[in-house]
């Protein structure tokens, strides 16, 4: 049988109430981390939604400008043709 080292420290187990407090503390920390993660997800969703709204507004403006640009030559041709018809009277 091997000899036991008399100088070695004996590992004492912590009392139960200390272990229970530590476990409770870990559970609280885990809940807090989950809540923070949930809040972060909500903020990311809001930010993403705002960004998509801005992009859609920007795209609508570009479409409106494009429609205006395509309408200007058509209106110009109509006005010119009416002016030419008026001159030819």
Describe the protein's architecture and organization.
With 89 residues, the chain is mostly helical. The chain is 81% helix and 0% strand. The protein is built from one helix and no strands. It has one helix spanning 16-87. The N and C termini lie far apart (129 Å).
Task: Give a brief outline of the structure.
With 89 residues, this protein is mostly helical. It contains one helix and no strands.
Helix/strand layout:
Layout: H1 16-87
Order of helices and strands: H
Mean pLDDT: 87
- Measured by DSSP, the beta-strand proportion falls in under 5%
Main beta-sheet strand count, sense and barrel state? none
Structural class: mainly alpha
What gap, in angstroms, lies between the N and C termini? 129 Å
- Give the helix proportion (percent range): over 70%
The quaternary structure here is single chain
Number of helices: 1
Sequence stretches where pLDDT stays below 50 over 5 or more residues: none
Radius of gyration: 38 Å
**Tally of strands:** 0
Which properties best describe this structure?
89 residues, rod-shaped
């Amino acid at each position: 049988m091997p000899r036991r080292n008399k100088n070695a420290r004996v590992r004492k187990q912590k009392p139960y109430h200390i272990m229970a407090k530590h476990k409770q503390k870990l559970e609280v920390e885990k809940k807090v981390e989950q809540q923070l993660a949930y809040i972060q997800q909500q903020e990311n969703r809001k930010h993403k939604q705002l960004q998509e709204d801005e992009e859609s507004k920007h795209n609508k403006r570009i479409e409106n400008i494009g429609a205006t640009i395509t309408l200007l030559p058509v209106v110009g041709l109509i006005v010119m043709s009416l002016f030419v018809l008026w001159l030819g009277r």
